[in-house]
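Morning F.,

Quick status update on the modeling queue. The single chain you submitted on Monday has been processed. Sequence for confirmation:
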Amino acid sequence: PLALNYLITKHGWQNTWLILGIVSILVISLFALVFFRDNPEDCGLLPDGVHANNGGAKKKSIAIQQYTASEAKRTFPFWIIGLTLAISGFCFTAVPFHIVSIFKLAGMSKTVAFSIFFYSSCISISLNIIFGYISDKIKIKYLLYVMLTGLVISTLSLAFLAPGFAFVTMIVGMGMSGG
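Structure tokens below.
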């Protein structure tokens, strides 16, 4: 956000869009060329569920029940998880677009507003690594609870935003929800 603000201030929003477009095309193309592979086998990897130590046979699935797409859409967990992810996406798309004006209303500067992204990203990355590791060992609903708790904390903190406690809890909530 600080870099984007700098570009907009220096070049205007129209030229910033052009700069971002050109840089994105170049960076994404280079990234794809270097890191993307067509087949996991080309990189010495095996597809999910296949293990080298059992002769390449598929591991037995631990799923209790399999659903088709239409059957899944009629279940409560499908909608809870889907709506939670949607609400999180809506909130954390809207907040960055209006972050400067939100913080201005709370009496805080643009620099302080942009600083929340660095701190919440640190929390988010840390939790993502931790929860990624334990996600195979616990039920996914518990991770959903953490995400929802972070969403509630950040939303309430945003409603009562002021320097101090609400500012810190907003960062923690955003990090929890993102991680």
